[in-house]
Amino acid sequence: MSTTFSTPASAAMSQAHDQKKTRIINNSATDPNKILPMSYMWARTHYKTGVANNWVPEEVSMQLDIELWKKQGPGALSDDERRMIIWNLGFFSTAESLTANNIVLAVYKHVTNPECRQYLLRQAYEEAIHTDTFIYTCDTLGLNPDEVYNMYLTIPSIKAKDEFVVSITKSVLDPHFSTVGTENTQKFVHDLIGYYAIMEGIFFYAGFVMMLSLLRHNKMVGVGEQFQYILRDESVHLAFGVDLINAIVDENPDIWTPEFQNVIIENIKKAVELEKAYAADALPNGILGLNAGTVQDYVEYIADRRLERLRLPRQYNTKNPLPWMSEIMDMPKEKNFFETRVTEYKTGGALQW
Known about the structure:
Helix content is 65%, strand content 0%. By secondary structure, the protein is mainly alpha-helical. It has a single domain (75-333), classed as Ribonucleotide Reductase, subunit A (Orthogonal Bundle). Helix 2 runs parallel beside helix 5.
């Protein structure tokens, strides 16, 4: 019987082979159809969280919203409240489609790891649910779809946000783009940050604040409840995206140069200014104790959070002016169990891998 002894050279070769097997992109050694054994357990965790959060818009009653939307006189929505609702529906209705298209057409193609691909399929499904939410809302409230779905063309502050995202995510949409090589890997990370940290992590949040402030005041509760579920989904999308970005950086440390980090910081600072301009446009006079200045401070606060998750320095050091945003996302609803829909509790029995 022969015995094989491990030498430093063979150990190094084995380690290099293991690293090659577990690389998240540019990995010809990975069979994307073979999900076991898993290399990135955080991707599996995010997938299971998404499944536990499952919901569809038709489960949410819109009867009270219809009555309030049609109401005139005392107790009716103000003109500023109506404006704010329409503007947010206009932004989100196209932004969700833009995000879904980028995932399906660009990101999925270049991520070779199977458990990450499984999560991306889950995220694409959730983006479809979000898009369906705005169809459901427009149909239920009797809104003009041409007005809502063309606001990304007719409202300058919405158009500016969409155009900025397109400009910083254009590399991966090139059909000839490849992630092979340091420069291309850097471009891929740059675009992923545009999708996840900027579009989903910053550009969605002024709208979340405005719509959920209505829910806190028991106005448009059906729409508000759906935005609450969308926020819950988006928080998982953001967590997955940051984990994906950081994993690529860890496996390709040569891309994370001071110059590249500065580009990312400047992109996020530009995004903050665009989101502030949108907040000022959508809330010209303030509603329900919420004004553009408070929302703008919140945008700075969450931008610092995104920077920290990307292991970059904070730029604003702004305190959270809206602590209720965390509560409205995390706090379970207190309702009679037999009157509670499936969307209001998580499923159990998740496997431990």
